[in-house]
Amino acid sequence: MLKITDAPTGSPYLHLDEMQPWNDHLQTLECVWVTDEAPGVKTFAFRSDNQTWFRYKPGQFVTLELPVGEEPVMRTYTLSSSPSRPFSISITAKAQADSIGTRWMFENLVPGMRVKAYGPAGGFSLYDHPAGRYFFLSAGSGITPMMSMLRWLYDCAPMTDVSFVNCARRPDEIIFRSELELLASRMPGLSLGFLVEERPRTQSWFGPTGRLDLTRLALLVPDFADREVFCCGPEPFMRAVRVLLEASGFDMQQYHQESFGTGPIEPVPAEIAEASDGLLPSEAPEVATTPVTFTLSGVEAEAYSGQSILQTARASGVRIPAACELGLCGTCKVKASGPIEMNHNGGILDDDIADGYVLACCSTPRGPVSVEA
Ligand code: FES
């Protein structure tokens, strides 16, 4: 069990306004507690190892670098904590049968252990879509970003009108159920609904059972058409919700869903493919390249036209951590200078860009560049 005296010796207590925000490039995370939430679901809470606070929007995620084998694995987890409690963050994860990273955390991650993390990042937040009335709809562990947003509303805007519906297989698999019921007793504008697939044999259950359809949706949230909808869960669930809402005539401008996407398969630059297409090296047409200097590794590389900084780094043996490879998660943030074109999807803050950072996965050199990696 950690004690407050475990803080670095001689380090005085700092008030929030005296602290710097956590910097994922400088500080690791220290696990401070682990708790069971539901069968196969745990929450892991972290603080920074260097008195800092966490700046993020409710609903955002972090990427953890987990030392699973010889090569660490990157896994992205939505934060279940609220930025209104900024001294620590927590993630809530379900260990699927075939999971590697989450299974490692379940078996190895204990208080006192440190892990590297990147972020927070992501645009799935009510901050970005202010509305008078919300509808949070989730299935299984998709409840995590909703919990972050609801905890934030409870702390900062408890009168907000929220309809919160969670779908689960069985009642005992409803994550955060007792906390949700407590919040509902204290937030006058919060209405809760649970939908379970299987009626339990040994417990009483007074809520609806079955799968979500238009009839059940209208019973759970009669005015759903007038609400800003946030949806998170397995992809088939979110697809089914989109179909339902579209069929009901819902204005899909008011619909938002969590999506990490999947990393793209790295394309072979067209010039390389063409150049190697049956031609001997001496016969290959000249291919345009741009010099890239990786200053920390001391590597001089060449980026082919269209190749990202991340692809160039990999091709030259320089390691830049990356998870989503879509410009979303912020894991591949590096300091770089020179003419660079970046097309990100919200994974980097304007402040970071002003400080000279880019996301390597979605940045392309447009002339000689130098990268701190
Ligand atoms: S790897 Fe996620 S933003 Fe680059």
UniProtKB/TrEMBL annotation:
The keyword Heme does not apply. Keywords: 2Fe-2S, FAD, Flavoprotein, Iron, Iron-sulfur, Metal-binding, Oxidoreductase. Residues 24-127 form the FAD-binding FR-type domain. Residues 290-373 form the 2Fe-2S ferredoxin-type domain. Pfam families: FAD_binding_6 (PF00970), Fer2 (PF00111), NAD_binding_1 (PF00175). One of its GO terms (molecular function) is metal ion binding. Its cofactor is FAD. CDD domains: fer2, FNR_iron_sulfur_binding_1. In the N-terminal section; belongs to the FAD-binding oxidoreductase type 6 family. This is Ferredoxin-NADP reductase. It comes from Amorphus orientalis.
